[in-house]
Amino acid sequence: MRRLKNRIALVTGGGQGIGRTIALAMAREGAALVIGDLNETNASAVKKEIEGLGGKASALHADISNEESVQAMVEATLREHGRVDILVNNAGIFPTNPVEEMAEEEWDRVIGTNLVGTFLCSKAVVPQLLAQRCGRIISLTSGRAFQGARNGAHYAASKAGIIGFSKSLALELAPHGITVNVICPGITDTAQPRGHQSEEQIYAQGRRIPLGRIGQPEDLAGPAVFLASDAARFITGQTILANGGGIMW
Predict the structure, then answer these.
(1) Statement: the pTM of the whole predicted model exceeds 0.90
(2) What is the pLDDT of residue 203?
(3) Which listed residue, of 73, 116, 133, 182, carries a Cα 20 to 30 Å from 91's Cα?
């Protein structure tokens, strides 16, 4: 069963990690994909992967912290497909510094990418979703939104902000048949945690998770496909914690 047949899905940060895996999963379910990424080489590689599966995809350069770049990405999507059905706000960054050493510029860059980027991408697709009177917005957050992040206050703040923003947007769009939800991963086997933790630290966390391991990107793809599908048409304003029981809410 192809649960997303004939849907158009735009995935930011789709060139690697969780975003790539979600894009591939949605393509397998019948969606045509638009891969928006700051790294055009990565985006093009995922496009080729999807085409290798027999799917349809395009790759676009996008800086989600820049409104003009976001608008250009969405306009290109609409020129090619005439609609957009699913937005996955996945792109994000996580540099590390303690608060006392954190430059305001670094704070602004993290908030500007993770939180403002989610706002800009969502805002850009809303007019089309309203015209269609249907659509799905799915944003990726983090367990750090609930637990905080040592040396990552900007990251935790941005991810907590995504939850509050998404609940608010869900209230605004619900009367129009549009749902807005959040997926909250725990530590996941991607490049991101390796930017500030050793392999030993990463897998030690896995041993403390009730299900006994760290997450794989595929563990997030299932919830994303579900939330994008008709099976989730009565779910909105929710935060789905997919973390092996590391945080129970």
Answers:
(1) yes
(2) 80
(3) 133
203 as an active site residue: the answer is: no
Q: Element (H or E) spanning 87, and its range?
A: strand 86-89
Enumerate helices (H) and strands (E) in the chain, giving the number of each.
10, 7
> Which segments in the chain show pLDDT lower than 50?
none
Task: Specify the residue for token string 């897998």.
Answer: 203
Active-site residue identified among 42, 59, 74, 155: 155
C-beta neighbour count of 25 within 10 angstroms: 20
- Structural domains of the chain in order of their starting residue, each with its CATH number: 8-242 (3.40.50.720)
Tell me which residue of 3, 80, 6, 91 sits closest to 43, measured CA to CA. 91
Name 154's Cβ contacts closer than 8 Å, sequence gap at least 6.
Answer: 102, 106, 107, 110, 111
Within its chain, how far is the Cα of 156 from the centroid?
15
C-alpha distance from residue 140 to each of 1, 71, 88, 208, 212 (Å): 25, 20, 8, 23, 22
